[in-house]
Amino acid sequence: MFIDVVDDRYVDDIIGLIEMKKKSNRKKERLDKEKLGKCGNRCDLCLLYVANNKDGKQGWFEFQEGDWKCYHNGDIKNQSDFSKYIYKGCHSDCEVVKCVLKKGIENCQECNYNLCNINTNNFTNPGRCNIGLSAEDITKFVLLYWGKERFDQMKQYE
Q: What gap in Å lies between CA 126 and CA 146, rounded to an integer?
């Protein structure tokens, strides 16, 4: 949207529009620990979560398409098959779960996760996702994996 500004009589209106748009349309997330995996990801929203693959739902296929579009530029040779990856939440072969159990803590928030070197998707930068995604794509394929950012938010409320 472009507005031709020829003088300053509309400046206050324009600033008002900009301020209004700063407010997010997205509902604030309830940061209940029950909804979070040990890494801070929202397992309940993940399309690979078992509940999203029951009764004819094929969340894995939507995840596969989103992963390909979001992180691999739609390049067909980089498309993965996620049909065999259906999870019930935290699982024993996850490196984060192994680490948390070894340390005897509840989740990564209780550790210095900013210095963590465990290779997991929740501490990558979801902002590296391709430009041009819709708000729905961001909700389905980016925000649920913001574990580190969620933990940072939770620390503000302690």
A: 7
